[in-house]
From TrEMBL:
SUPFAM superfamilies: Clavaminate synthase-like (SSF51197). InterPro entries: Gig2-like, IPNS-like_sf. This is DUF1479-domain-containing protein. It comes from Umbelopsis ramanniana AG. Residues 352-372 are annotated as: Disordered.
Length: 415
């Protein structure tokens, strides 16, 4: 879906809704630039080490939560690498299954691995018990200050996405961008309230982990709340090996790309609604802050907040493939349950997920795959629950709201 928007009108409406005084906004932006420039100097000094890391055993030892030693850094940067989540031999086996599925069907279709979403090997990674624990830990970084949001971070739901299997020397890469919407951050009545502090000239008060409005904002091609984007490494990866770069200053970079548009006298065009370009000519400071992740091995999990800018290196000078399976972290909420109802249909057809269908206008090539298409019974119990094929139980220790949300979501899913 390519949409053209009245960008100036959208910006004007934000100003009318929140009535920020121009000088207050400008002063806020000036303060922001000072902080960002200091952060960039520090990020460039530290390089990949700036990205927080921990081991899966640290998460387990902390009762399934992000370890205290890195917690504040994770919140500030908006990203985390958890090492050794899935044993590497198991991940390599899953990658082989994905490749067999892909190559086994490729002959007729010539499809790229990126669009392959239904390989059984992918589902086996998505439902791996260790990964599920990490997803819950990531979801639990979010909170609900109002107490009114219908969500449950400990009962994850899964958004089907593809994978990347990239051989050495292969061209590829992506310019800086942010997913989970583009112009909707200014335009969508619910969604733009996530950024109220920024619109009011108080970016320092922006709480990027407040779940309010996130679970009630279905966007044109982002109808599923992904608290964190993420991938499981299916190969080693690191600097110059065709991997991801992150902009590890969550609040500041979010305020920067939001405010710059409000203050820019010569607005440039945003081309899409499903993700937003953060390319250098529009947002140079985002690009100055991008840093490649530290080295990872098969089975490591890389997470980044849904508002965080990122890019993928264009060069891949490693000696082996650079491969990942995209698996984000998402909580149970009614909006996600609604999406699962539609995803159920696309899964049965073997096609891409609903957001991708809405964006691209077709279900992709997998509907015509004949070999090794998984069925619902191939999934584990937790895999079925994350896909909405089985209901989550109401647990004894669930509070009243969690009980209500669980029952409401189960009802949406037909249970
Ligand atoms: Fe992305």
């Amino acid at each position: 879906m390519v949409a053209h928007w009245d960008q100036k009108g959208v910006i004007q409406k934000v100003k009318e809704d929140y009535q920020p005084k121009e000088d207050v906004l400008q002063a806020s932006y000036d303060r922001l630039l000072t902080v960002i420039k200091e952060k960039i100097a520090e990020i460039q000094r530290q390089g990949p080490k700036f990205i927080p890391e921990c081991d899966f055993t640290d998460v387990e030892a902390n009762n399934g939560q992000v370890p205290e030693e890195v917690l504040q850094r994770v919140k500030d940067t908006g990203c985390l690498i958890i090492h050794n989540v899935i044993p590497d031999e198991e991940v390599l086996q899953r990658k082989k299954e994905i490749e067999d599925y892909w190559y086994g069907n490729q002959e007729r279709l010539g499809v790229k691995a990126r669009g392959v979403m239904n390989a059984l090997g992918l589902f086996k990674l998505r439902e791996h018990p260790n990964l599920v624990k990490c997803i819950v830990a990531a979801n639990s970084l979010w909170h609900d200050p109002s107490g009114d949001v219908e969500w449950c971070p400990t009962k994850p739901m899964v958004y089907l996405d593809g994978c990347r299997i990239r051989n050495p020397g292969e061209e590829g890469g992506m310019l800086a961008h942010v997913d989970s919407g583009g112009i909707e951050r200014w335009w969508h009545d619910e969604y733009k309230q996530c950024y109220k502090a920024v619109w009011e000239g108080k970016w320092e008060e922006l709480d990027s982990y407040d779940v309010s409005y996130r679970t009630t904002s279905p966007l044109p091609t982002n109808k599923f709340f992904r608290a964190f984007q993420g991938w499981i490494a299916m190969s080693e990866a690191g600097q110059d090996k065709g991997t991801i770069r992150l902009c590890p200053m969550l609040k500041e970079q979010t305020a920067y790309y939001l405010l710059k548009q409000l203050l820019d006298k010569e607005l440039k065009h945003w081309p899409t609604v499903h993700s937003m370009s953060l390319r250098n000519e529009l947002f140079p400071l985002i690009n100055d802050a991008l840093v490649t992740i530290p080295d990872v091995q098969p089975g490591d999990y890389v997470l980044w907040h849904c508002d965080l800018g990122h890019s993928v290196e264009y060069t891949h000078n490693g000696e082996k493939d650079s491969s990942v399976a995209y698996i984000g972290a998402s909580p149970m909420c009614p909006m996600n349950a609604e999406y699962l109802v539609r995803q159920h249909e696309t899964f049965l057809k073997g096609g891409k997920g609903p957001d991708f269908v809405d964006r691209d206008g077709d279900g992709g090539p997998e509907a015509d795959f004949t070999e090794s298409r998984p069925a619902i019974d191939d999934l584990s119990d937790i895999g079925k629950k994350m896909m909405g094929f089985l209901p989550y139980e109401v647990n004894e220790d669930d509070d009243e709201k969690t009980r209500e949300v669980t029952l409401k979501c189960n009802k949406i899913l037909g249970f």
